[in-house]
Hints:
heterodimer, A: 314 residues, mainly alpha, MetI-like fold, two-stranded antiparallel ribbon, 15 helices, 2 strands, 70% helix, B: 299 residues
Amino acid sequence: MAKTLAAAPKKKMTWKRFKRFLPIYALMLPGLIYLFINNYMPLPGLMIAFKKYNAGKGIYGSDWVGFKNFEYLFTTDDAWVITRNTIAYNLAFIVVNTVLAIAVAIILSELDGKIKKLYQSAILLPNLISTVIIGYLVFAFFSVENGFINNTILPLLGKEAVGWYSEAKYWPFILIFVSAWRSVGYNCIIYLATLMGFDKSFYESAKIDGATRWQQIQYITLPLLKPTVIMLTLMAIGRIFYSDFGLFYQVPMNQGALYATTNTIDTYVYRGLLQMGNISMSAAAGVYQSFIGFILVLGANLIVRKIDRDSALI
Amino acid sequence: MKTREDKIYNFFGHLVMVVLTLLAVVPILLMFISSLTDNDALVKNGYSFFPEKWSVYAYEWIFASNSATILRAYGISIVLTVLGTVLSLLITMCLAYGLSKKELPGRGVLTFLVFFTMLFNGGLVPTYINYTNVFHIKDTFWGLLVPGLLMNAFNVLLMKSYFVTGVPGEIMEAAYIDGADEFKIMWKIAIPLSKPIIATVAMFAAIAYWNDWNNGYIYLVKRTDLFSIQNLLNRLMQSIQALTQNTSGLSQAGEGLAKIPSSTVRMAMAAIGILPIMVIYPFIQKNFVKGITLGGVKG
């Protein structure tokens, strides 16, 4: 981006030039207004985190309390739990989803034509389903009274029914599985597109030299994929302080008994704001997320930019 | 020429993919089968792939007693998706088109303002307060349409770089010299040359609008009549009575509740919600794959 900016010649702003560009500014106006309303106007509201919010007095009229809200937030267990959950789940998603996506992409890249398209369509389907309906699908399997697992699978194994929606310890596995179920098809397409661009002659000469399939994957495919993996992983690490609200709120059905393993920064902020009415605390958690998230996104992008300018956001 | 190794590799490749395909489809299948199960059989045996007794009663019940609620939610989802997609596409295209003009004064600053929204976000609390206290969109259709969904910086920048690389500046310059105005140049030259990216952005916007439940959940508190199909589904998961409360009076609700085949109705409603996606998917599948590759690396 900086390159193209520098390339643009600096010219003096004259009335004639302004008139020439007026229609373009007019075209851009609705978009700019929307970004102003949606992204910039709320920013002063961040000050609520440093105030004792009083709906009657409004944002500006409420009393300043300095870092009190943050002090309270970090003396509770919540701060630790939501930070741990947000980061740990994201790390697990990065590892599991990347490994699966690469494996599936490599397998798909060597299969032929029509059936390959069919596989691809099928594993991509979960990506199109809303989180609400994913919640229903998970419920069909895990429902305590009627669920497929409690009624069919566990009896087959001779085990007792499990209270899935009241025992937090199972949810890391369920959520990691659901996340993989939903995103592997999507991620594998990105890797597959990269794979298809590799120079075929590497593989042909490797075959002539008698390399096995596994050796070809190990010594050609994976090293060539490395830059893409690094790039996507860095981008994901930049977003490690954000979580998919739907996945953590909708899929566990907002069950209080599961908060230990399902509460993330995003669900905490939501519940604080709209269910507990604890706006100041919620705002403090939001500011905590915004600022650390900002530093991480920026850092990740600067590193990406060092490696490969074109892939970076900035 | 296939070697023995190739054959083994192919066999295992297909095996793995068949398993993954089943894993992807089986939960959806379970939902459809459960919706077609007799409620008593379901309560006895749980959600099952091989129901003891089939029945379409869940669907009959839904359409006999609640067709109005469901049709309205469907209608709202459709209007929301169409309107949201068209609006979001229009303002994204126009903004991206402007940002793609290299000689535009202030282009650097404007691009940064768009880009910055991807780096820093005020989050839910200030956004909610802004939308409810300043714009009063709570319990209005705007609450479904506007917050967070209408346009995002990523799509703008994606489209901008497509305009920069995919539409030759000389053609646009020539058209301008020939007397075409900016609107005409954008409409007749830039947009037709950028169909792939426009199709991609439109498709992702449409999917996001159809699947969104979050805005309705946050901004529709009293006006449940504005619920989209996702919001209705969400409410239904919490209580099956949500369906009856809208149509019948309180006195009938208790009586009606006893007859509700609730376990199967749940799944039948989910099936009704998922149906449009399943119908459209074969047609958009190819574009969806292309779109992921177009926007994927940065997304």
